[in-house]
Specification:
Elements: H1 2-22, E1 23-32, E2 43-48, E3 54-59, E4 65-71, E5 77-83, E6 86-91, E7 94-96, E8 99-109, E9 114-123, E10 140-145, E11 150-155, E12 162-168, E13 171-178, E14 185-193, E15 196-201, E16 206-211, E17 216-225, E18 233-236, H2 250-265, E19 269-276, H3 283-303, E20 311-317, H4 333-339, E21 341-349, H5 360-375, H6 388-399
Parallel strand pairs: 1-8, 9-17, 19-20
Antiparallel strand pairs: 1-4, 2-3, 2-5, 5-6, 7-8, 9-12, 10-11, 10-13, 13-14, 14-15, 16-17, 18-21, 19-21
């Protein structure tokens, strides 16, 4: 019995020794072409060369590194690297000169056509004289692909003031950045749509570095966020009026449309639209004219879906000129027009933002339903019920169940 036990142990030890001797270890790195950095979260598949079967799968770590162990029962192995933003590639690991059971591979991946959106968040310092600005951390960042109707990037609290995301060609993206104490920022990106290589709406500080016949590149963007505080005033660019008139000009309507978007994304604030005239004409008349202009701007916002209770209009006349074109001073028409302007001032802030508990996806889908309801030209006769589709949309809106 004792001899049998010893024999069994010897056989087991022999099997262990055989298995250890025939284990092989494959390690390696995956990096982007032109030494642009190691790549995390690349899918690694180990294929045997005998029949192409899958021997193991793993994912590269944050440093682009991977390592696997497997039984060396085949003539050789091939390593396949895959990532949705890069072209797939296979490579043959090379034996380690110091160990017959180890091999190593480095795989260089070529990026698919698309654009890296590399962003830095900072507080808007345009109203201050300091040359340095405060970086913003802890922001919620969401990116929604309107083309595929999917959330593609969501970070509830960004640990640094920087983030990056790769825009793929043929897609329309919405980017939303939210941070308590700041105005929510929404931006639109159109990637190779209708002739746009990459067109942005809602952001101006963008530097592009394009390569590969404009099929690839990096876009560096500084997103400046405005702090929310009572009596903070923002001048609305290009909200001008014709002399002695109060109607909204087409160029002013374009700018007011931007205000509509800002107020829809920030429903917790109330604002005053303050209108200013140039110095020509009687002071009392200018005060009355500016009030009419402010009221006209407010009405435009109301007509485009902004709650009237969140808005107020005030005319300042010629009391706050931005240049020296006062009574009796000869100035050009361009100089006078600088004084015919409108400004936005925060007059109230609710404790809770109604959009806090809604995702960007929900916000966009609700906007689409409201737009479809506005665009509907369905005639309902007295006594008839609404179509089921519209009733369902209204029910979703009432429940916030989008």
């Amino acid at each position: 019995m004792k001899h049998l036990l010893n024999l069994s142990m010897l056989l087991l030890l022999g099997q262990i020794g055989f298995a250890q001797e025939h284990l092989t270890e494959i390690e390696g790195y995956v990096y982007e072409e032109n030494n642009r950095g190691y790549l995390p979260e690349v899918n690694i598949t180990i294929l045997n060369d005998d029949d192409g079967g899958v021997e193991a799968k793993t994912i590269t770590d944050k440093n682009g590194y991977f390592r696997v162990q497997l039984a060396h029962l085949h003539s050789g192995f091939t390593v396949k690297a895959q990532h949705k933003l890069f072209f797939s590639k296979t490579a043959t690991p090379q034996a380690d000169s110091n160990s017959k059971n180890k091999s190593f591979v480095k795989i260089e991946l070529e990026r698919r056509p698309g654009y890296i959106f590399d962003v830095t968040l900072a507080e808007n310092s345009s109203d201050f004289k300091e040359t340095t600005v405060d970086a913003i951390q802890g922001a919620k960042v969401e990116i929604y692909n309107n083309t595929t109707k999917k959330e593609v990037f969501v970070v509830d609290s960004l640990h640094s003031p920087n983030f990056n995301f790769t825009f793929e060609q043929g897609n329309h993206y919405t980017v939303m950045v939210r941070k308590e104490g700041f105005l929510t920022k929404r931006m639109e990106a159109f990637v190779n749509i209708d002739g746009c290589i990459l067109c942005f709406e809602g952001i101006s500080n963008v530097t592009d570095v394009l390569t590969k016949s404009n099929e690839q590149g990096t876009f560096l963007a500084n997103i400046e966020m405005d702090r929310i505080a009572l009596n903070t005033t923002f001048e609305l660019k290009n909200i001008y009026y014709d002399y002695d008139k109060s109607f909204i000009r087409p160029d002013a309507a374009v700018e007011l449309d931007k205000v509509v978007k800002v107020l829809k994304d920030n429903p917790a604030i109330s604002v005053e639209l303050g209108s200013h005239t140039d110095s020509r004409g009687r002071d009392a008349y200018n005060l009355s004219l500016s009030q009419a202009r402010a009221a006209s701007a407010v009405q435009y916002l109301v007509d485009n879906g902004i709650d009237a209770s969140k808005l107020s209009a005030r005319g300042y006349g010629e009391t706050l000129l931005v240049n020296n074109c006062a009574n009796g001073i000869n100035c050009s028409e361009e100089a006078h027009q600088q004084n015919r302007r409108t400004a936005l001032k925060i007059t109230g802030i609710e404790k809770k933002d109604p959009l806090d508990n809604k995702s960007l996806k929900q916000i966009i889908e609700e906007d689409l339903i409201l737009k479809s309801l506005d665009d509907s030209q369905i005639q309902i006769n007295p006594g008839e019920e609404l179509p089921e589709e519209i009733k369902k949309d209204i029910e979703k809106l009432n429940k916030g169940g989008i």
